[in-house]
Amino acid sequence: MLLTQLGQGREAEVFAWADGYVLKLFWPEFSHADADLEAQLTQQVWLMGVPSAKVEDVLEFEGRWGVVLQWIKGVPLTDYVQTDPTRLRFAAQMLGALHRQLHSKAAGQLPSQRLQLIRRIQACRLPLELRVALLNHLEQLPDGTALCHGDFHPENVLVAEGGVYVIDWPGATCGNPVADIARTTLLVLYSELPPDLPGREEIMQQRELFYQTYLEHYQTFSGLDMAELQAWMPIVAAARLRDNIASEEPRLMQLIQEGLQTQVGERLR
Asked: Strands 12-16 and 5-8: what pairing?
């Protein structure tokens, strides 16, 4: 059976499937359990009323596991900006408003954000003393009960005729919204962009403006403690190390070391 590929990422390819559906087909190293977990999390989020895709099925195709999802016929927010750069500020405002919408949902039935962060920090390639310092710092940070995406950035937001939708929910957790914003901060400002990403150069040049507009618009809907946001940065940077993206590691190490030093200084005041 020949499928038409719609896109691909680090974890999966996406293909057109039956009428009105797509197949997110995971790379061979992912298991049936991985596909099941993503399907369960995605369906729970959809049932919360979040603008996202409904899950139709989990299946095996040519030796690989996949999830059949409602086909949201839209374009990533990056493409939306790339086709008309004057949309950049509006797109950033949409991102901020949408993130706040997610965080307004209680998500007590989802996995714990804190436990997920602990596992990633314990598994990343850092000296033992640095991992201990990070975990001790994490203990000082407040927990939460909000829906957190875990990978919220413009490529995971689709602009369609019916509105904007959020995709890719394998990292969905119940936790602190500020930690989720810290993760978005890391991705928007510091992540290594794919060389073939549409509008890559424009995004690199205007990252700061896009980020500040996103953050300001989020804050119009909800107060945000900037000191708490900074406190989460070394934690999310350490968790990002677990993704083993070599080009990002020097910057992540800098964020970890500077962040921990700042937090120690704050506690000594």
From this structure: antiparallel
